[in-house]
């Protein structure tokens, strides 16, 4: 009999609310259904603004927290329909992620009280802060799910998720590791939004018209985060327009900048793969970046000796993987099983992640 959980996440690209339903009853979790719910423009703009350093406003944050919580709750209830869903794992939207130093912290909004109230489902949320409390990075949290879903029967594999930030999971015999590699779509989306008022560069059509600026690419490749060893994680606190404009003279052709950003993203991912994974490992890509044809072409050229494919080749919807991971983490919470991997995050040990917000069952 199916044991169903729903995961919900608004990723760093803020391009929609991803929902996935999984069945955890089989030995390997199975994604049963998935969808993406649009986010109202006013809320999406508020979430993007809140993610930038120096733009914190308590009233605006509280309003966005409430609005996103209601959106998640209503969307989950509609998505669940009459399915016997056990619980929802709600990640919400990250607006700050600074996991290092004496005041290490991470902040996700999307009020879980409202998710529970309007979905009618037990809600598990606040997955990252326990790992940080245990001395970890709080991210990435998907590697254990990648292991459950994608570990090959033999050989090695690297799973690359290209969202706003890129992260990878290394799957080898007796080894699961992972870390954030640097920017995914974050800089690409920010640049095209500022110059062409578009949410993203569809299929990389704009970056494909530009030429890489060698000096800019060299400067970007000297980035401290990209060059740092794992464990490590980051966010749009770092990779934003301010980060980019500090490196520009102001006379560059905008299309050339976009092409350089695509090359930098591909280079940072490829360098991480080549440096930290076994040389024979294949590369499987999920997340919205896999739909950027120009970015994927650049990545494939830089990883020319390895097979590079999307998760669809393995029968898995690449848009659903991250939301499905938080559904799986909700299941792990209810079973009191660890949701983190200390080898990945650097935490002092395995920890049960999340907090429970019980449903009002009468709503269903």
Features:
single chain; 364 residues; alpha/beta; seven-stranded mixed beta sheet; five-stranded mixed beta sheet; 13 helices; globular
Largest sheet composition: 7 strands, mixed
Strand content: 15-25%
Instruction: Point out poorly predicted stretches.
Output: none
Radius of gyration over C-alpha positions, nearest whole angstrom: 19 Å
Number of strands: 12
> How far do the termini sit from each other?
21 Å
**Overall pLDDT confidence:** 95
- Count of individual helical segments: 13
Globular, elongated, flat, extended or rod-shaped: what is the shape? globular
Q: Fraction of residues in helices?
A: 25-40%
How would you summarize what this structure contains?
This protein is of the alpha/beta class and 364 residues long. The chain contains 13 helices and 12 strands.
Detail the topology: elements first, then pairings.
Elements lengths: L3 E7 L6 E7 L6 E8 L3 H10 L7 H23 L4 E14 L6 E5 L2 H8 L3 E3 L3 H5 L9 H8 L6 E6 L2 E8 L2 E9 L2 H11 L17 H8 L2 H4 L13 H5 L8 H23 L5 E5 L6 H10 L5 E3 L10 H14 L7 H4 L9 E3 L7
Parallel strand pairs: 1-4, 4-6, 7-10, 10-11
Antiparallel strand pairs: 1-2, 2-3, 4-5, 6-12, 7-8, 8-9
């Amino acid at each position: 009999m199916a044991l169903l959980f729903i995961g919900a996440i608004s990723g760093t690209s803020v391009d929609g609310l991803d929902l996935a339903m999984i069945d955890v009853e089989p030995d390997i979790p199975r994604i049963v259904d998935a969808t993406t719910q649009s986010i109202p423009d006013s809320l999406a703009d508020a979430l993007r603004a809140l993610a930038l350093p120096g733009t914190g406003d308590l009233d605006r944050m509280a309003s966005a927290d409430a609005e996103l919580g209601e959106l998640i709750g209503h969307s989950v209830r509609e998505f669940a329909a009459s399915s016997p869903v056990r619980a929802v794992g709600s990640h919400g939207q990250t607006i700050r992620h600074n996991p290092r130093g004496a005041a290490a912290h991470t902040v996700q909004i999307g009020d879980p009280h409202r998710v529970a109230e309007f979905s009618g489902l037990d809600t598990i949320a606040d997955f990252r802060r326990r790992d940080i409390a245990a001395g970890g990075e709080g991210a990435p949290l998907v590697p254990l799910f990648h292991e459950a879903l994608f570990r090959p029967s033999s050989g090695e594999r690297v799973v690359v998720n290209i969202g706003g930030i890129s992260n990878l999971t290394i799957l080898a015999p007796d080894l699961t590791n992972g870390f954030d590699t640097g920017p995914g779509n974050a800089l690409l989306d920010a640049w095209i939004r500022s110059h062409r008022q578009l949410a993203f560069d569809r299929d990389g059509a704009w970056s494909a018209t530009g030429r890489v600026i060698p000096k800019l690419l060299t400067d970007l490749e000297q980035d401290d985060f990209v060059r740092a060893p794992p464990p490590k994680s980051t966010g749009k606190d770092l990779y934003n327009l301010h980060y980019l404009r500090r490196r520009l003279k102001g006379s560059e052709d905008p299309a050339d900048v976009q092409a350089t950003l695509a090359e930098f993203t591909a280079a940072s991912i490829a360098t991480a793969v080549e440096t930290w994974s076994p040389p024979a490992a294949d590369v499987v890509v999920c997340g919205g970046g896999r739909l950027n044809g120009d970015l994927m072409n650049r990545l494939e050229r830089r990883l020319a000796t390895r097979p590079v494919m999307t998760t669809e080749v393995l029968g898995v919807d690449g848009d659903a993987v991250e939301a499905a991971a938080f559904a799986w983490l909700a299941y792990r919470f209810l079973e009191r099983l660890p949701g983190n991997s200390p080898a990945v995050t650097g935490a002092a040990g395995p920890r049960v992640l999340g907090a429970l917000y019980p449903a009002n069952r009468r709503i269903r």
